């Protein structure tokens, strides 16, 4: 290697190997410290991204549940308005003397019940069932001699309906005591 010359033309002295090793060791230590710092920063950013993804997944799931609940609430609100119409149609069938007209009203009744069934609405079983205050609304009691019939529904005044686990309308019943 050729010696480098200073401004005045005199050659610059070469640093000894020990000095060079010390300088390289210092540079290596600095580079390692920077690498550790950058690795920690990379891990922090990776953790941040993971948390943001989890937060977004939770947000999406929460919104899906809220939308599902709102849709169900809307359906229940409409069904609550339709159920009394079923009662009126049932009464109308009993009062109509013309068989053709009665058959037409029965068809409408069946169509509405089929539509409700399509939305998962079912009738709450009541007659002959054990009284359940979560499903039935007792408005009368009647004494019975048979102890096996105590607390049983003996008459249904108004059918009850449910959609899944949600009660649309409780059955209005008479209970044996």
The neighbouring-strand order within the major sheet is 1-4-5
Query: Strand-residue fraction?
Result: 15-25%
Structural class: alpha+beta
How many strand units? 6
Outline the low-pLDDT stretches: none
- What is the mean pLDDT? 91
Assembly of the depicted chains: single chain
What is the chain-wise order of helices and strands?
HHEEEEEE
Separation, N- and C-terminal Cα atoms: 115 Å
Largest sheet: 3 strands, antiparallel
The best one-word shape is rod-shaped
- Return Rg in Å: 41 Å
Q: What helical percentage do the residues reach?
A: 55-70%
Number of helices: 2
Describe the structure in brief.
With 177 residues, the protein is an alpha+beta fold.
Structure, described:
The structure is a single chain. The chain has 177 residues and is of the alpha+beta class. Helices cover 56% and strands 18% of the residues. It has two helices and six strands, in the order ααββββββ. The longest helix has 79 residues, at 17-95. The chain is rod-shaped, with a radius of gyration of 41 Å. The model has no long low-confidence stretch (mean pLDDT 91).
Which structural traits does this protein have?
single chain; alpha+beta; three-stranded mixed sheet; 6 strands
Secondary-structure topology with pairs:
Layout: H1 17-95, H2 99-118, E1 121-124, E2 136-142, E3 153-158, E4 160-163, E5 166-169, E6 171-176
Parallel strand pairs: 2-6
Antiparallel strand pairs: 1-4, 3-6, 4-5
Helix pairs in contact: 1-2
